[in-house]
């Protein structure tokens, strides 16, 4: 990617001949975000490169580029190595970049910072505050939580003579434990072994860490025995495994995993033991190892029926079947996922697990409060997090439910965030580019109880236009009152069915938006409006001006349009279009934020 810093020259035009050019790898999305920055050492251009590390990873990084030092190249701030908690492998740090006023530093986020729960990745996102001297001050993740709620799992292993060899059973156990989030605040595990009778290998409270539990599991020896008293074992586990005196936690979800390779010798107990488990809300997984039966040519149907009768309903979720001991290990991933499913933590039940906090970020006028967009919250309905030094307020689903009318979980509220001011009050604005397919912008404030109150909302007027994906407030005459809110709809289709793109103009009165028409690019498929920014007075008439990016203009070369401010608005005729100098900076924005936002599962991470 390449970025250019321009100088104002000859008359009222922005000169490109003396442009400073900073380059780094385009594949690492250098230039996706940019921010001018000043500290005691000088003037800088901060540049996000959210795929730095590609193709090995997409950790991302921020570069500092010195503006007044000709020929100097940009240097990495090396923030990524200091954000190591959780899973930073593809966190995409630098996707957002915003100045912070409290410490005169800035904030950058990696919305794809992940948390591994079992074998599932969640994406709560991470944000980092950086000091004016470019050191990481704090990294925080407002949406991170323990993996699922408290869960106590009893693993009941058949150790009778017919199990052979024993080693695969131990390997299965170890692999299964590796996939769980073991700890006193998350998942606890007890292991029991049975043949004729049943005994504990270790209890729920025996080990506090996964490593020590796995170590203990590798030392479990086969019990041996001529009988397979499966129902006595289940009953023993039901009565003893979850007792508080053995480490059971009140309120924890109770799960039992029964692994056996033969029909029981005590099937007569089935009709009392299984209903007793049900009344104690113990969710049961039944795993039939068919190895002994297959080796000895015994009909497996009775065994399968018995294990199915142990498993919770629906059977297809809780019953597993493997042809030999050695293949047990292959079901571990699925078993782990299904254990998480007990919590209902998939699909329609996501709250903040996929929220991608930091997908957008904005410093409000209230120095304390930073808005963080969380476009993946509540099944991709999205929300906004109000972050201050003391706490994070994740706005509840109910706050925007009515105004969004999101029946299909895809509004992506928080894709963009900003705030506007009428001189005394500040109003918050969030974009939801897929709300009811047309896109929406919502203006809200916080009442004295710190609850969000919807002030106004506007929908886009064309399906698929991505109205609201980009927001830009403009104070044209620099009096502290927001004169215009510009709203990008970069995929707005012109009559020739090409994505020309539009930017809508709204004036704001006490938070109420009033449509004042739109700006439009001139070329087909240009995606005009993908990036919008207000810039200080370029033509020296004392009004702020506006620059709009059209990243695909000219067969993907990209162009910017300059609009001059005029009293309390901007002129709708552009004063200048620069087609040649910015090859990829805005182009990248298209690739990363819009281009992969499809309905496929992968696209759900919309990056
Ligand atoms: C991280 O990103 C790289 C490069 O795109 C990809 O090959 C890899 O599979 C990703 N890893 C995870 C855990 O998502
Ligand atoms: C990262 O941490 C190391 C060790 O604490 C510190 O020396 C370095 O300055 C930090 N880097 C940044 C960019 O904060
Ligand atoms: C692993 O288990 C062995 C035997 O039970 C024990 O002596 C050792 O201390 C354990 N090591 C760790 C790191 O827990
Ligand atoms: C089992 O779950 C039901 C429904 O959630 C609940 O009403 C009941 O109290 C639970 N029973 C026990 C023993 O926890
Ligand atoms: C159990 O496994 C056998 C072979 O391994 C397979 O033929 C059979 O369909 C399986 N039964 C069920 C109910 O999954
Ligand atoms: C939700 O999606 C279904 C199927 O994709 C569609 O038929 C329906 O119109 C959508 N509803 C809304 C409110 O968008």
From TrEMBL:
Subcellular location as annotated: Membrane
Domain of life: Eukaryota
SUPFAM superfamilies reported in the protein's UniProt record: Integrin alpha N-terminal domain (SSF69318), vWA-like (SSF53300)
Swiss-Prot/TrEMBL FG-GAP repeat ranges: 16-74, 343-396, 451-515, 516-572
GO molecular function terms listed in the Swiss-Prot or TrEMBL record: integrin binding; metal ion binding
PROSITE patterns for this protein: FG_GAP, VWFA
Sequence ranges assigned to domain VWFA in this UniProt record: 152-335
Keyword set includes Magnesium: no
Annotated GO biological process: cell adhesion mediated by integrin; cell-cell adhesion; cell-matrix adhesion; integrin-mediated signaling pathway
Primary location recorded for the protein, binned into one broad class: membrane
UniProt keyword terms in alphabetical order: Calcium, Cell adhesion, Glycoprotein, Integrin, Membrane, Metal-binding, Receptor, Repeat, Signal, Transmembrane
Protein topology in the membrane: Single-pass type I membrane protein
InterPro entries cross-referenced by the UniProt entry: FG-GAP (IPR013517), Int_alpha_beta-p (IPR013519), Integrin_alpha (IPR000413), Integrin_alpha_N (IPR028994), VWF_A (IPR002035), vWFA_dom_sf (IPR036465)
Family per similarity comment: Belongs to the integrin alpha chain family.
Protein name per Swiss-Prot or TrEMBL: Integrin subunit alpha 2
Source organism of this protein record: Cyprinus carpio carpio
């Amino acid at each position: 990617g390449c970025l250019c810093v321009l100088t104002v020259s000859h008359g009222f035009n922005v000169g490109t001949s003396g442009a400073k050019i900073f380059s780094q790898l385009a594949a690492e999305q250098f230039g996706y975000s940019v921010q001018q920055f000043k500290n005691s050492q000088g003037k800088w251009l901060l540049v996000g490169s959210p795929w730095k590390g590609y193709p090995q990873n997409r950790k991302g990084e921020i570069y500092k580029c010195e503006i007044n030092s000709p020929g100097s190249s940009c240097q990495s701030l090396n923030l990524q190595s200091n954000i190591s908690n959780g899973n930073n492998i593809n966190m995409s740090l630098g996707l957002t970049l915003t100045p912070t006023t409290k410490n005169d530093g800035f904030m950058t986020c990696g919305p794809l910072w992940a948390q591994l729960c079992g074998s599932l990745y969640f994406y709560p996102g991470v944000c980092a505050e950086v000091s004016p001297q470019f050191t990481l001050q704090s990294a925080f993740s407002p949406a991170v939580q323990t993996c699922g709620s408290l869960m106590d799992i009893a693993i009941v292993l058949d150790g009778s003579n017919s199990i052979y060899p024993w080693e695969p059973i131990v390997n299965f156990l170890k692999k299964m434990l590796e996939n769980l989030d073991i700890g006193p605040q998350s998942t606890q595990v007890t292991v029991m072994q049975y043949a004729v009778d049943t005994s504990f290998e270790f209890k729920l409270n025996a080990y506090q860490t996964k490593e020590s539990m796995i170590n203990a599991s590798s030392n479990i020896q086969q019990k041996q025995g001529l009988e397979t008293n499966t129902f006595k074992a289940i009953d023993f586990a039901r009565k003893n495994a979850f007792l508080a005196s053995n480490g059971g936690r009140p309120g924890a979800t109770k799960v039992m995993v029964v692994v056996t390779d033969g029909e029981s010798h005590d099937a007569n107990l089935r009709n009392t033991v299984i209903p007793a488990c049900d009344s104690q809300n113990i969710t049961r997984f039944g795993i039939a190892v068919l190895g002994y039966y297959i080796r000895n040519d015994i009909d497996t149907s009775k065994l399968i029926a018995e294990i199915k009768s142990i498993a919770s309903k629906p059977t297809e979720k809780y019953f597993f079947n493997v042809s030999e001991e050695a293949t047990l290990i292959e079901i571990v991933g699925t078993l782990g996922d299904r254990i998480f499913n007990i919590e209902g933590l998939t699909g329609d039940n996501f709250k903040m697990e996929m929220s991608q906090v930091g997908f957008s970020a904005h410093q409000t006028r209230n120095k304390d409060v930073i808005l963080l967009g969380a476009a993946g919250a509540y099944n991709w309905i999205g929300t906004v997090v109000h972050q201050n030094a003391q706490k994070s307020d994740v706005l509840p689903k109910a706050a925007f439910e009515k105004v969004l009318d999101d029946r299909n979980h895809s509004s992506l509220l928080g894709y963009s965030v900003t705030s506007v001011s009428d001189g005394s009050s500040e109003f918050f604005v969030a974009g939801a580019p897929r709300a009811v397919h047309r896109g929406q912008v919502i203006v809200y404030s916080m009442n004295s109880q710190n609850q969000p109150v919807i002030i106004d909302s506007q929908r886009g007027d064309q399906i698929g236009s991505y109205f609201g994906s980009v927001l830009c407030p403009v104070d044209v005459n620099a009096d502290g009152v927001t004169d215009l809110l510009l709203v990008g709809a970069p995929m707005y289709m012109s009559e020739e069915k090409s994505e020309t793109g539009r930017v809508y103009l709204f004036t704001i009165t006490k938070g109420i938006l009033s449509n004042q028409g739109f700006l439009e690019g001139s070329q087909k498929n240009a995606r005009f409006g993908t990036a919008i920014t207000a810039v200080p007075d370029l033509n020296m008439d004392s009004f702020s001006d506006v620059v709009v990016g059209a990243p695909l203009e000219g067969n993907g070369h990209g162009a910017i349009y300059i609009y001059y401010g005029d009293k309390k608005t901007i002129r709708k005729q552009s004063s200048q279009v620069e087609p040649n100098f910015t090859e990829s900076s805005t182009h990248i924005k298209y690739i990363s934020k819009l281009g992969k936002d499809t309905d496929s599962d992968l696209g759900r991470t919309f990056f």
